[in-house]
Amino acid sequence: MAILLRSLIKEVSNMDITLVAGESGMNTPVSWVHMVETVDATSFLDGGEVAFVTGIGLSKQDTILDLISNIHDRNAAGVFVNLGPFIDSIPEAVIKYCNEKEFPLFTVPWKIHLAEIIRKFSCEITKDDQKHMQISSSFMNALFFPEQEHLYITPLAQYGFQPNWQYAVCMLKFTLNDSTDIPYIERLTLQMERFLKHYYNNYAVFRLEESIIIIMADYTEDEVRELVAKIFERSRTYCSPDALPSIGCGRLTQSLRCIYKSFQQAKSITNLQERKKISKSNIFYSDMGIYRLLMSVTDTDAINYFCNETIMPLVDYDKTNNSNLTEVLRKYLQNNGSVIDTANEMYVHRNTINYKLKKIEEILDVDLSSLDFRIHAALGLYLLDLL
């Protein structure tokens, strides 16, 4: 939960600082502070920093407008200009630019030591980072050690997260090529937090391995859907089309004590999306149909036993013979036992489907016309998707 620029300014309100432009951007979250004296140096900004400028590094080729526009383009939170021997005033073009971009621009007289402002900002940002770490750690305990309530109930209540509120968990899961992608997810986590900070209260955002976890507290079902829809769209803004995450949202819980259930549901939904069993636009637990019931089955031994008794011989046969009989059975059941519809969907002749259906009957020793078998096979396939 990054601290807002508006909150930081209150810590230095007695230091003769003047806001000259970009007041509408004061609710921007701040990640850190950085001295930036040249256009080239703006490349070191990762986004969210407050930049401090004295003008000592400005060349004849680069104007203060060039410098500030580059700082803005690097997604900084705001800029402080130290008025003195290198910059005596702020040009009107700079003020106009910052107002148009809603980019906060402050001036500080030369007599004020920038080091003291930076020290105060750094202290407040560090304190806020520690708060974020404590909240994230407490929620992690709630997700993975729900029976150990002392690890999360009291710590989270201290930060305003009440035990009897309703909670929902949203997960954004990424497919990583290697461990070097972790900083990429960390940057996305910060960007998502900045977005939420502008518009929402009572939430927590943190990275969990290859995923971003968003906890929503004290929201209604409609509010959760609205927020997750915005997260869904925002993820498409942050990510390239070939790197879009899977997104799942568990149902609202009755209290903090059962938030782990919402987390497990969100995780199951992202797994289904990754395996292309459901669309990436199918996000909410309440829209999962029969998967809603099957997600509540937590006894993996029972699931494995049922699958072994129904569908696994066919799966094993496909692996050994490089065939697609499991897919044929799935399509056949989805098409209500229609050979013609199954053939059309799979772009093959109906005789091919009939041949494969007979092979399925031989392998599983069943009668495909049996309603009892169809029910068991469908359940086995759905459960297999969740494994």
**Tally of DSSP helical segments:** 15
Please give the number of β-strands.
11
Distance between the termini: 34 Å
Shape: elongated
Largest sheet, in brief, is: 5 strands, mixed
Oligomer: single chain
**Low-confidence sequence ranges:** none
**Spatial sequence of strands, sheet with the most strands:** 2-7-6-5-4
Radius of gyration: 28 Å
User: What share of the residues lie within helices?
Assistant: 40-55%
Strand content: 5-15%
- The chain-level mean pLDDT equals 89
Topology as H/E string?
EHEEEEHEHEHHEHEEHEHHHHHHHH
The computed structural class is alpha/beta
Describe the structure.
The protein is an alpha/beta fold. It has 15 helices and eleven strands. The strands form three sheets. The protein has a five-stranded mixed sheet with strand order 2-7-6-5-4, with helices on both faces. A four-stranded antiparallel sheet has the order 9-10-8-11. A hairpin with a 2-residue loop joins strand 9 and strand 10. The longest helix has 31 residues. The model has no long low-confidence stretch (mean pLDDT 89).
